[in-house]
Amino acid sequence: MSFKVALNFEDGVTRFIACPPTDTVADASYRAGINIPLDCRDGACGTCKLFCESGEYDGGSYIEDALTDEEAVQGFALACQMRPRSDLVLRLPVPAAACKTGPVTQTAVLEEVTRLSPTTLAFSLKLATPLMFLPGQYVTIQVPGTGQGRAYSFSSTPGAASASFLVRNIPGGLMSGFLANQAKPGLELTFTGPSGSFFLREMKRPVLLLAGGTGLAPMLSMLGQMLAEPPVHPVHLIYGVTNDEDLVEIARLEEYASHRPGFTWEACVASPASAYPRKGYVTQYIQPPYLNGGDVDVYLCGPPAMVEAVRKYFAESGVTPASFHYEKFAPSVAADKAA
User: Fold this and answer.
1) Cβ distance 196 to 138 under 8 Å?
2) Confidence tier at 270 by pLDDT (50, 70, 90)
3) Partner of 158 at 20 to 30 A CA spacing, among 4, 79, 123, 222?
4) Residue 282: inside a domain, yes or no?
5) What pLDDT was estimated at residue 338?
6) Cα distances (angstroms) measured from residue 108 to each of 114, 168, 192, 305
7) CB of 339 closer than 8 Å to CB of 198
């Protein structure tokens, strides 16, 4: 038996390896061609120190100079000593290239393009083999005939036979123009990934999800994972858009709410001319119960202005979330990924 170990590097590149409980993470990584930096294999130097985002493990033996008791309690461990007791998500403080690895490039077949609204498209890729990624991450997809790629977050869950995405339908947009006017089912597309430091962590407290526009995509991936592995804590989503026509995937959210006890959601539309019952911005609908006195994990994905508005809201409200993970994006340009 082997456990699945996700290695998330500081540049966002993520590689998955198999590690049996009898092996250290360092040894399993080396077998997969990933050279985690080591100056010893005895737990004496601390060079291979990393952080465990989720999962259970045996930390092995080491000296205080390599890893303090306080660090161990926080979740830090040494790759040369730790042995998995479950699937793990590990954060490494080095770029992928430093470990002689990098993002994986592969191909998939365009399965379907759906016009969800005048402003939003959805498309799906049929995968040769199910793709592993962390809910919230993205891939960079090459736009045929252009030599350029665009980054899109998964709206599907890890391990599915198809991968799905949401795209803002922008006049003159490189990918949206291709999808709307040229794309045909059966076309082969190339993508690289998964990547990103914006992903669902182990749920230890209530969660607040904040999505703007097509920033809903990674939240759908996270919610799909929560259906597969139901958490015990409540989850609330606030979904904001500019105009009524930007509201999409409402039926999907309603389905999640009907199947996942403890999940609630609401949407709002910024335009004063909207016919939608809730008007305004996401920050207007962040209520104290959702913040749980600060003991809450917040995930935010949206355009830069929305991200800055939410950060300002927290600064002025005096509430500091236990963790705050965000990703901001701009249409048709490389995304600014942050966590």
Assistant:
1) yes
2) very high
3) 79
4) yes
5) 39
6) 17, 21, 11, 34
7) yes
Whether omega before 234 lies within 30 degrees of 0, making that bond cis, reads: no
Q: Tell me how far apart the alpha carbons of residues 328 and 308 are, in angstroms, rounded to a whole number.
A: 9
Look-up of token digits 């005939």 = 145
| pLDDT recorded at residue 230 | 87
The whole model's pTM is what?
A: 0.94
Q: End of a domain among 78, 99, 120?
A: 99
Q: Is 246 helix (H, G, I), strand (E, B) or coil?
A: helix
- Both tokens of residue 308? 């800055």
Closest CA to 196 of 5, 6, 4, 8: 8
Q: What is the domain count for the chain?
A: 3
User: How many angstroms separate the Cα of 103 from the Cα of each of 63, 193, 195, 196, 209?
Assistant: 34, 5, 7, 11, 27
- Residue 333 above 60 pLDDT? no
**What's the whole-number mean pLDDT along residues 209-236?**
95
The pLDDT tens digits of the residues spanning 127-140 come to 999 999 999 999 99
Pair (296, 216) in one structural domain: yes
pLDDT band at 339 (very low <50, low <70, confident <90, very high): very low
**Number of Cβ atoms within 10 Å of the Cβ of 258:** 9
Could you count the other beta carbons within 10 Å of the beta carbon of residue 321? Answer: 18
* Residue 303: pLDDT over 90: yes
325, 46, 87: which is closest to 208 by C-alpha?
325
Helix (H) or strand (E) holding 15: strand 14-19
Domain residue limits at 325: 207-337
Q: What is the per-residue burial (b if ≥16 Cβ within 10 Å, else e) of 162-183?
A: ebbbbbbbeeebbbbbbbbeeb
**How far apart are the C-alpha atoms of 154 and 135, rounded to whole Å?**
7
